[in-house]
Amino acid sequence: MSWRTGSKMFAEMWPLIQANMPDRETRIDFTGRLLELFVHDDMDPFDVEDIHPDIRAAMRRVDIELQEPERYKDDPAA
């Protein structure tokens, strides 16, 4: 999978994840595991880190480095 395809696919899936996982902790855990798969298959996480604070929380939880962490100082704690 190309990084562009992965980023586009993840961005399209995100609203479904939000709609079907109302519990924030569950959503962050699931998203973290999903992001690990996408990154393993060459998705650039920078392309999705600005979509939603929960995505950044998921990235932090699974040790995926944020490219611009200074932009997100007001994120809620994960």
Structural class: mainly alpha
Q: How much of the polypeptide forms β-strand, as a percent range?
A: under 5%
What's the end-to-end separation, in Å?
Answer: 29 Å
Secondary-structure element order, as H and E?
HHH
Shape: globular
Number of discrete domains = 1
Biggest β-sheet, characterized?
none
Please name the defining characteristics of this protein:
mainly alpha, 3 helices, 78 residues
How does this structure look, described?
By secondary structure, the chain is an all-alpha fold. The chain has one domain. 56% of the residues lie in helices and 0% in strands. It is built from 3 helices and no strands. Helix 1 (3-20) runs antiparallel to helix 2 and helix 2 (24-40) packs across helix 3. The longest helix is centred in the first third of the chain and has 18 residues, at 3-20.
Task: Describe how the helices and strands are arranged.
Elements: H1 3-20, H2 24-40, H3 53-61
Q: What is the compact description of this entry?
A:
By secondary structure, the protein is mainly α.
